Protein backbone atom coordinates (compact mmCIF):
# COMPACT_ATOMS: atom_id res chain seq x y z
CA UNK A 1 0.00 0.00 0.00
CA UNK A 2 1.41 3.39 -0.95
CA UNK A 3 1.65 6.22 1.54
CA UNK A 4 -0.80 9.14 1.32
CA UNK A 5 0.05 11.96 -1.06
CA UNK A 6 1.46 14.18 1.66
CA UNK A 7 2.50 17.02 -0.62
CA UNK A 8 -0.51 17.01 -2.94
CA UNK A 9 -3.24 18.11 -0.57
CA UNK A 10 -5.37 21.23 -0.44
CA UNK A 11 -6.49 22.73 2.86
CA UNK A 12 -10.10 22.88 4.00
CA UNK A 13 -11.60 19.76 2.39
CA UNK A 14 -11.58 16.93 4.92
CA UNK A 15 -11.00 14.24 2.32
CA UNK A 16 -7.61 15.81 1.56
CA UNK A 17 -6.26 15.14 5.05
CA UNK A 18 -3.58 12.42 4.67
CA UNK A 19 -4.88 9.76 7.05
CA UNK A 20 -2.25 7.56 8.76
CA UNK A 21 -1.59 4.15 7.21
CA UNK A 22 -3.37 2.12 9.89
CA UNK A 23 -3.27 -1.62 9.21
CA UNK A 24 -0.35 -1.62 6.81
CA UNK A 25 2.30 0.89 7.81
CA UNK A 26 1.71 2.68 11.10
CA UNK A 27 3.34 2.52 14.53
CA UNK A 28 0.42 0.38 15.71
CA UNK A 29 1.42 -2.27 13.16
CA UNK A 30 5.06 -2.65 14.21
CA UNK A 31 4.99 -4.91 17.28
CA UNK A 32 2.17 -7.13 15.95
CA UNK A 33 4.32 -7.74 12.86
CA UNK A 34 7.42 -8.59 14.89
CA UNK A 35 5.70 -10.96 17.32
CA UNK A 36 3.68 -12.64 14.57
CA UNK A 37 7.01 -13.70 13.09
CA UNK A 38 8.00 -14.98 16.55
CA UNK A 39 4.95 -17.22 16.74
CA UNK A 40 2.87 -15.19 19.22
CA UNK A 41 -0.77 -16.14 18.62
CA UNK A 42 -3.39 -13.56 17.71
CA UNK A 43 -1.15 -11.39 15.54
CA UNK A 44 -0.48 -11.08 11.82
CA UNK A 45 2.44 -9.41 9.98
CA UNK A 46 0.78 -6.13 9.00
CA UNK A 47 3.94 -4.41 7.69
CA UNK A 48 4.55 -6.79 4.84
CA UNK A 49 8.09 -5.60 4.08
CA UNK A 50 9.60 -6.75 7.40
CA UNK A 51 11.41 -10.10 7.51
CA UNK A 52 11.30 -12.41 10.55
CA UNK A 53 13.92 -12.37 13.31
CA UNK A 54 14.21 -14.44 16.47
CA UNK A 55 15.28 -11.42 18.52
CA UNK A 56 13.71 -8.02 17.94
CA UNK A 57 14.65 -4.69 19.50
CA UNK A 58 12.73 -1.44 19.02
CA UNK A 59 14.63 1.76 19.83
CA UNK A 60 12.16 4.64 19.91
CA UNK A 61 13.66 8.14 19.70
CA UNK A 62 11.08 10.63 20.90
CA UNK A 63 10.51 13.40 18.36
CA UNK A 64 12.83 12.27 15.56
CA UNK A 65 10.66 12.39 12.45
CA UNK A 66 11.60 11.18 8.98
CA UNK A 67 11.84 14.69 7.56
CA UNK A 68 14.12 15.94 10.35
CA UNK A 69 16.44 12.97 9.99
CA UNK A 70 16.69 13.37 6.22
CA UNK A 71 17.53 17.07 6.66
CA UNK A 72 20.49 16.45 9.01
CA UNK A 73 22.83 13.82 7.54
CA UNK A 74 25.95 15.49 8.96
CA UNK A 75 24.65 15.30 12.53
CA UNK A 76 23.41 11.71 12.20
CA UNK A 77 25.77 9.85 9.85
CA UNK A 78 24.93 6.40 11.21
CA UNK A 79 21.15 6.77 11.18
CA UNK A 80 21.30 8.50 7.80
CA UNK A 81 23.23 5.55 6.39
CA UNK A 82 20.21 3.37 7.20
CA UNK A 83 17.60 5.54 5.46
CA UNK A 84 17.75 3.65 2.17
CA UNK A 85 16.91 0.43 4.01
CA UNK A 86 14.03 1.85 6.04
CA UNK A 87 10.84 -0.20 6.18
CA UNK A 88 12.32 -3.50 5.09
CA UNK A 89 14.57 -2.12 2.37
CA UNK A 90 11.96 0.02 0.62
CA UNK A 91 13.53 3.28 1.75
CA UNK A 92 10.13 4.45 2.99
CA UNK A 93 8.87 5.71 6.36
CA UNK A 94 5.83 4.59 8.30
CA UNK A 95 3.19 6.85 9.87
CA UNK A 96 2.69 7.72 13.51
CA UNK A 97 -1.10 7.94 13.88
CA UNK A 98 -3.40 10.81 14.79
CA UNK A 99 -2.72 12.81 16.77
CA UNK A 100 1.05 12.58 16.32
CA UNK A 101 1.86 12.96 20.00
CA UNK A 102 3.77 10.92 22.55
CA UNK A 103 1.02 9.44 24.74
CA UNK A 104 -1.03 8.42 21.72
CA UNK A 105 1.93 6.98 19.82
CA UNK A 106 3.41 5.04 22.73
CA UNK A 107 0.01 3.50 23.39
CA UNK A 108 -0.21 2.54 19.71
CA UNK A 109 3.25 0.98 19.80
CA UNK A 110 2.67 -0.98 22.98
CA UNK A 111 -0.87 -2.21 22.38
CA UNK A 112 -0.62 -2.66 18.63
CA UNK A 113 -3.89 -0.76 18.32
CA UNK A 114 -4.82 2.58 16.71
CA UNK A 115 -5.97 5.45 18.92
CA UNK A 116 -9.68 4.80 18.45
CA UNK A 117 -9.22 1.38 20.02
CA UNK A 118 -6.65 1.93 22.77
CA UNK A 119 -8.38 5.13 23.85
CA UNK A 120 -5.60 7.70 24.19
CA UNK A 121 -6.66 9.96 21.31
CA UNK A 122 -4.76 13.09 22.30
CA UNK A 123 -2.55 14.96 24.74
CA UNK A 124 -5.55 16.07 26.82
CA UNK A 125 -9.06 14.72 26.29
CA UNK A 126 -12.32 14.91 28.18
CA UNK A 127 -13.18 12.09 30.54
CA UNK A 128 -16.86 11.38 29.81
CA UNK A 129 -17.37 10.07 33.34
CA UNK A 130 -16.29 13.30 35.05
CA UNK A 131 -16.49 15.96 32.34
CA UNK A 132 -12.91 17.01 33.18
CA UNK A 133 -9.94 17.23 30.86
CA UNK A 134 -7.51 14.39 31.45
CA UNK A 135 -3.82 14.74 30.57
CA UNK A 136 -2.84 11.34 29.19
CA UNK A 137 0.90 11.97 29.35
CA UNK A 138 0.98 13.15 32.96
CA UNK A 139 -2.14 11.14 33.93
CA UNK A 140 -3.78 14.07 35.67
CA UNK A 141 -6.33 13.97 37.18
CA UNK A 142 -5.89 10.39 38.31
CA UNK A 143 -8.09 7.70 36.85
CA UNK A 144 -7.77 3.92 36.91
CA UNK A 145 -5.24 3.15 34.14
CA UNK A 146 -6.65 -0.25 33.27
CA UNK A 147 -10.20 1.05 33.09
CA UNK A 148 -9.01 3.82 30.80
CA UNK A 149 -7.05 1.39 28.57
CA UNK A 150 -8.18 -2.21 29.16
CA UNK A 151 -6.51 -3.98 26.23
CA UNK A 152 -3.45 -6.17 26.89
CA UNK A 153 -0.13 -4.96 25.57
CA UNK A 154 1.79 -6.82 22.90
CA UNK A 155 4.60 -7.20 25.45
CA UNK A 156 2.24 -9.02 27.81
CA UNK A 157 1.04 -11.31 25.04
CA UNK A 158 4.60 -12.06 23.92
CA UNK A 159 5.69 -12.79 27.49
CA UNK A 160 2.79 -15.20 27.94
CA UNK A 161 3.80 -16.94 24.71
CA UNK A 162 7.31 -17.59 26.03
CA UNK A 163 9.16 -14.70 24.37
CA UNK A 164 11.75 -13.04 26.61
CA UNK A 165 10.39 -9.51 26.92
CA UNK A 166 11.96 -6.41 28.43
CA UNK A 167 11.69 -2.64 28.46
CA UNK A 168 14.86 -0.62 29.04
CA UNK A 169 14.24 3.03 29.85
CA UNK A 170 14.78 5.76 32.43
CA UNK A 171 14.01 4.48 35.95
CA UNK A 172 11.38 7.15 36.53
CA UNK A 173 9.13 5.65 33.87
CA UNK A 174 8.81 2.24 35.54
CA UNK A 175 5.68 2.91 37.59
CA UNK A 176 3.91 5.55 35.51
CA UNK A 177 0.33 4.85 34.41
CA UNK A 178 1.31 5.25 30.76
CA UNK A 179 3.95 2.54 31.13
CA UNK A 180 1.46 0.27 32.87
CA UNK A 181 -1.18 0.47 30.14
CA UNK A 182 1.08 0.78 27.08
CA UNK A 183 4.51 -0.72 27.69
CA UNK A 184 4.22 -3.28 30.49
CA UNK A 185 4.90 -6.99 30.17
CA UNK A 186 7.99 -9.02 30.95
CA UNK A 187 10.72 -7.11 32.79
CA UNK A 188 11.36 -3.38 33.18
CA UNK A 189 15.03 -2.41 33.47
CA UNK A 190 15.77 1.17 34.50
CA UNK A 191 19.03 2.85 33.51
CA UNK A 192 19.85 6.55 33.67
CA UNK A 193 22.46 6.96 30.95
CA UNK A 194 21.79 6.36 27.29
CA UNK A 195 24.92 4.25 26.96
CA UNK A 196 23.82 1.96 29.80
CA UNK A 197 20.41 1.56 28.16
CA UNK A 198 21.96 0.51 24.87
CA UNK A 199 24.26 -2.00 26.52
CA UNK A 200 21.47 -3.47 28.65
CA UNK A 201 19.10 -3.66 25.67
CA UNK A 202 21.68 -5.77 23.84
CA UNK A 203 22.10 -8.00 26.91
CA UNK A 204 18.34 -8.47 27.18
CA UNK A 205 18.14 -9.40 23.51
CA UNK A 206 20.66 -12.15 24.10
CA UNK A 207 18.80 -13.45 27.17
CA UNK A 208 16.29 -15.51 25.19
CA UNK A 209 16.13 -17.61 22.05
CA UNK A 210 13.16 -15.40 21.17
CA UNK A 211 13.34 -11.87 22.55
CA UNK A 212 11.38 -8.63 22.30
CA UNK A 213 13.13 -5.59 23.76
CA UNK A 214 12.05 -1.95 23.78
CA UNK A 215 14.24 1.01 24.64
CA UNK A 216 13.61 4.73 24.55
CA UNK A 217 15.31 8.13 24.49
CA UNK A 218 13.43 11.37 25.19
CA UNK A 219 15.66 14.40 24.87
CA UNK A 220 15.57 14.91 21.10
CA UNK A 221 11.93 15.81 21.65
CA UNK A 222 12.71 17.85 24.76
CA UNK A 223 15.29 20.04 23.04
CA UNK A 224 13.05 20.48 20.01
CA UNK A 225 10.19 21.73 22.15
CA UNK A 226 12.34 24.17 24.07
CA UNK A 227 14.75 25.45 21.44
CA UNK A 228 13.44 24.36 18.04
CA UNK A 229 14.30 21.54 15.66
CA UNK A 230 17.17 23.37 13.98
CA UNK A 231 18.79 24.74 17.12
CA UNK A 232 22.29 23.87 18.28
CA UNK A 233 20.77 22.14 21.32
CA UNK A 234 18.58 19.94 19.11
CA UNK A 235 21.45 19.16 16.76
CA UNK A 236 23.60 18.17 19.72
CA UNK A 237 20.95 15.69 20.88
CA UNK A 238 20.69 14.25 17.38
CA UNK A 239 24.45 13.72 17.30
CA UNK A 240 24.31 12.00 20.67
CA UNK A 241 21.40 9.69 19.83
CA UNK A 242 23.11 8.78 16.54
CA UNK A 243 26.04 7.48 18.56
CA UNK A 244 23.67 5.61 20.87
CA UNK A 245 22.00 3.85 17.95
CA UNK A 246 25.36 2.83 16.52
CA UNK A 247 26.47 1.55 19.93
CA UNK A 248 23.40 -0.67 20.17
CA UNK A 249 23.74 -1.87 16.57
CA UNK A 250 27.34 -2.93 17.19
CA UNK A 251 26.30 -4.99 20.22
CA UNK A 252 23.44 -6.97 18.70
CA UNK A 253 23.58 -10.69 19.48
CA UNK A 254 23.14 -13.19 16.62
CA UNK A 255 19.73 -13.56 14.91
CA UNK A 256 18.67 -10.07 15.92
CA UNK A 257 16.90 -7.20 14.22
CA UNK A 258 17.09 -3.64 15.53
CA UNK A 259 14.38 -1.18 14.47
CA UNK A 260 14.93 2.52 15.12
CA UNK A 261 11.75 4.55 14.95
CA UNK A 262 10.02 7.57 16.53
CA UNK A 263 6.67 8.59 17.92
CA UNK A 264 6.26 11.74 15.79
CA UNK A 265 8.16 14.46 14.00
CA UNK A 266 8.21 18.16 14.89
CA UNK A 267 8.27 21.63 13.38
CA UNK A 268 8.96 25.12 14.68
CA UNK A 269 5.98 27.48 14.87
CA UNK A 270 6.75 31.16 14.17
CA UNK A 271 6.04 33.64 16.94
CA UNK A 272 3.49 35.79 15.13
CA UNK A 273 -0.27 36.25 15.44
CA UNK A 274 -1.18 34.37 12.27
CA UNK A 275 0.94 31.35 13.23
CA UNK A 276 0.06 31.31 16.94
CA UNK A 277 -3.68 31.80 17.27
CA UNK A 278 -4.46 32.52 20.90
CA UNK A 279 -7.73 30.87 21.97
CA UNK A 280 -7.70 32.82 25.21
CA UNK A 281 -7.72 36.13 23.32
CA UNK A 282 -10.19 35.20 20.55
CA UNK A 283 -13.83 35.60 21.59
CA UNK A 284 -15.10 33.92 18.43
CA UNK A 285 -13.19 30.70 19.08
CA UNK A 286 -14.15 30.70 22.76
CA UNK A 287 -17.89 31.14 22.14
CA UNK A 288 -19.79 27.99 23.12
CA UNK A 289 -16.67 26.09 24.15
CA UNK A 290 -16.68 24.30 27.51
CA UNK A 291 -13.19 22.75 27.28
CA UNK A 292 -10.21 23.13 24.97
CA UNK A 293 -8.34 19.83 24.77
CA UNK A 294 -5.56 18.31 22.72
CA UNK A 295 -2.57 20.51 21.92
CA UNK A 296 -1.71 23.37 19.61
CA UNK A 297 -1.66 21.45 16.34
CA UNK A 298 -4.31 18.84 17.16
CA UNK A 299 -7.20 20.30 19.14
CA UNK A 300 -10.17 18.54 20.72
CA UNK A 301 -12.90 21.13 21.26
CA UNK A 302 -15.74 20.29 23.65
CA UNK A 303 -18.84 22.45 23.25
CA UNK A 304 -21.40 23.41 25.85
CA UNK A 305 -24.58 21.34 25.38
CA UNK A 306 -26.47 22.40 22.27
CA UNK A 307 -23.63 24.50 20.82
CA UNK A 308 -21.80 21.81 18.85
CA UNK A 309 -22.94 22.92 15.39
CA UNK A 310 -22.32 26.58 16.11
CA UNK A 311 -18.81 25.89 17.37
CA UNK A 312 -18.05 23.79 14.30
CA UNK A 313 -19.28 26.54 11.99
CA UNK A 314 -17.27 29.27 13.69
CA UNK A 315 -14.07 27.24 13.91
CA UNK A 316 -14.31 26.45 10.21
CA UNK A 317 -14.89 30.08 9.33
CA UNK A 318 -12.02 31.35 11.49
CA UNK A 319 -9.47 28.57 10.92
CA UNK A 320 -10.51 26.82 7.71
CA UNK A 321 -7.64 28.13 5.61
CA UNK A 322 -5.04 26.80 8.03
CA UNK A 323 -6.65 23.76 9.69
CA UNK A 324 -8.70 20.72 8.79
CA UNK A 325 -11.74 21.27 11.02
CA UNK A 326 -14.10 18.31 11.48
CA UNK A 327 -16.96 17.28 13.69
CA UNK A 328 -16.38 14.24 15.87
CA UNK A 329 -18.27 11.96 13.49
CA UNK A 330 -16.57 13.43 10.43
CA UNK A 331 -13.13 12.82 11.91
CA UNK A 332 -14.10 9.27 12.91
CA UNK A 333 -15.64 8.48 9.53
CA UNK A 334 -12.57 9.85 7.76
CA UNK A 335 -10.45 7.34 9.71
CA UNK A 336 -8.33 9.86 11.58
CA UNK A 337 -8.30 7.71 14.73
CA UNK A 338 -8.29 4.33 13.02
CA UNK A 339 -10.76 2.02 11.27
CA UNK A 340 -13.05 1.69 14.29
CA UNK A 341 -13.74 3.46 17.57
CA UNK A 342 -14.38 1.64 20.85
CA UNK A 343 -17.57 2.92 22.45
CA UNK A 344 -15.73 3.99 25.61
CA UNK A 345 -13.51 6.21 23.42
CA UNK A 346 -16.22 7.95 21.38
CA UNK A 347 -16.92 10.86 23.72
CA UNK A 348 -13.25 11.36 24.57
CA UNK A 349 -12.90 12.76 21.05
CA UNK A 350 -13.83 16.43 20.74
CA UNK A 351 -17.16 17.64 19.41
CA UNK A 352 -14.88 19.47 16.99
CA UNK A 353 -11.39 18.31 15.99
CA UNK A 354 -8.95 20.81 14.44
CA UNK A 355 -5.76 19.51 12.81
CA UNK A 356 -3.18 21.96 11.51
CA UNK A 357 -2.37 22.06 7.82
CA UNK A 358 -0.13 25.15 7.84
CA UNK A 359 2.77 26.01 10.15
CA UNK A 360 0.36 27.23 12.79
CA UNK A 361 -0.96 26.33 16.24
CA UNK A 362 -3.94 27.19 18.43
CA UNK A 363 -2.29 28.21 21.67
CA UNK A 364 -3.92 29.24 24.96
CA UNK A 365 -1.61 31.63 26.78
CA UNK A 366 -3.59 31.75 30.02
CA UNK A 367 -4.81 28.15 30.25
CA UNK A 368 -1.63 26.59 28.89
CA UNK A 369 1.23 29.06 29.42
CA UNK A 370 4.01 26.48 29.27
CA UNK A 371 2.74 24.66 26.19
CA UNK A 372 2.00 27.97 24.46
CA UNK A 373 5.62 29.06 24.83
CA UNK A 374 7.10 25.98 23.13
CA UNK A 375 9.15 26.58 19.99
CA UNK A 376 8.75 23.14 18.42
CA UNK A 377 5.32 21.52 18.22
CA UNK A 378 3.62 18.47 16.72
CA UNK A 379 0.32 16.61 16.62
CA UNK A 380 -1.24 16.93 13.20
CA UNK A 381 -1.22 14.92 9.95
CA UNK A 382 1.39 16.80 7.93
CA UNK A 383 4.35 14.86 6.62
CA UNK A 384 6.80 16.50 9.00
CA UNK A 385 4.77 15.28 12.00
CA UNK A 386 3.36 11.98 10.75
CA UNK A 387 6.22 10.31 8.91
CA UNK A 388 8.67 8.43 11.12
CA UNK A 389 11.61 6.21 10.18
CA UNK A 390 11.71 2.45 10.52
CA UNK A 391 15.46 1.94 10.23
CA UNK A 392 16.80 -1.59 10.40
CA UNK A 393 20.03 -3.31 11.40
CA UNK A 394 20.40 -7.12 11.40
CA UNK A 395 23.05 -9.34 12.88
Notable characteristics:
395 residues; alpha/beta; 18 helices; 32% helix; 19% strand
Characterization of this structure:
- The chain has 395 residues and is of the alpha/beta class.
- Helix content is 32%, strand content 19%.
- The chain has 18 helices and 18 strands.
- The strands form 6 sheets. The protein has a 6-stranded mixed β-sheet, with helices on both faces.
- Helix 10 runs parallel beside helix 12 and helix 11 runs antiparallel to helix 12.
- The longest helix is centred in the middle third of the chain and has 19 residues.
- The two termini are 28 Å apart.
- About 2% of the residues have low confidence.
Helix and strand arrangement:
Elements: H1 30-37, E1 55-61, H2 66-70, H3 77-81, H4 86-89, E2 94-95, H5 102-111, H6 115-118, E3 124-126, E4 133-135, H7 145-148, H8 154-160, E5 164-169, H9 177-182, E6 187-190, H10 194-206, E7 211-217, H11 219-227, H12 232-250, E8 256-261, E9 267-268, E10 276-278, H13 283-286, E11 289-295, E12 298-303, H14 308-319, E13 323-327, H15 328-333, H16 343-346, E14 352-356, E15 361-363, H17 369-372, E16 376-377, H18 383-386, E17 387-388, E18 391-394
Total helices: the number is: 18
Summed over residues and divided by their number, the pLDDT gives a mean of 96
Low-confidence stretches: 4-11
Class of secondary structure makeup = alpha/beta
Oligomer: single chain
Distance between the termini: 28 Å
